[in-house]
Amino acid sequence: MYYGMLAEITGHANELWNSDENLTVGKFRSQILEKYPALREKKFKVAVNQKIAEDFAPIDPSAEIALLPPFAGG
Amino acid sequence: MEKIHKPKKVFVQGPISPEFVSKSIASHQSKTAIGAHAIFLGQIRADQKESGVVTAIEYSAYEEMAEHAFHEIREKAFARFELTCMHIYHSLGTVPVGEISLFVFVSSPHRRAAFEASEFVVEEIKANVPVFGKELIGENGAYVWKENS
């Protein structure tokens, strides 16, 4: 799922991500940057099942992945 | 006994009205263990940007994750400070300049806990809740994405 400015760059809010079984957040980051090079200039965090995840974290095939631009609450 | 704090609905559509704030204050008059309320209100500022002046912010959120994050902040605040109760409301959708988009209301027997908890809660919201904001500029549909510093 893409939020805020990132949804504008990818052109949609949701996408199904097909990947092999050993996906990690780090691998996912490089795959997504390859598909959407414009994201390289943007800051974003990756949330897996609604938790911010570090690059080494594994991603389950059924997981919900979200790309989150900088927060602006308040 | 440990109190259990149920997740509460935080998001409201559009601005938070002064009437809503005053009703929230009035509804605490029966809670006579409270000696101090601290209220933080976030108001939309007419910032000057390169392309013009901000007229409103359009908020969106990763709502499910945000509700969890708000709940965690509440739990941390209750664990850290002597609080009687606490309410957080945040706007979604468009909030024009001069109107309120965040209402944090903490109540305690004593002032120190109320002051400190309100600051803690506001800072946690700014840093850890996935809320996104588009600063709308002028009449022609221009905007910039807001980023908390």
Automatic annotation (TrEMBL), chain B:
GO terms for molecular function: molybdopterin synthase activity. It holds the Pfam family MoaE. Its EC number is 2.8.1.12. Pathway: Cofactor biosynthesis; molybdopterin biosynthesis. The keyword Transmembrane does not apply. It catalyses: 2 [molybdopterin-synthase sulfur-carrier protein]-C-terminal-Gly-aminoethanethioate + cyclic pyranopterin phosphate + H2O = molybdopterin + 2 [molybdopterin-synthase sulfur-carrier protein]-C-terminal Gly-Gly + 2 H(+). GO terms for biological process: Mo-molybdopterin cofactor biosynthetic process. Keywords: Molybdenum cofactor biosynthesis. The keyword Signal does not apply. It is an enzyme of class 2 (transferase). Heterotetramer of 2 MoaD subunits and 2 MoaE subunits. Also stable as homodimer. The enzyme changes between these two forms during catalysis. Belongs to the MoaE family. This is Molybdopterin synthase catalytic subunit. It comes from Dyadobacter sediminis.
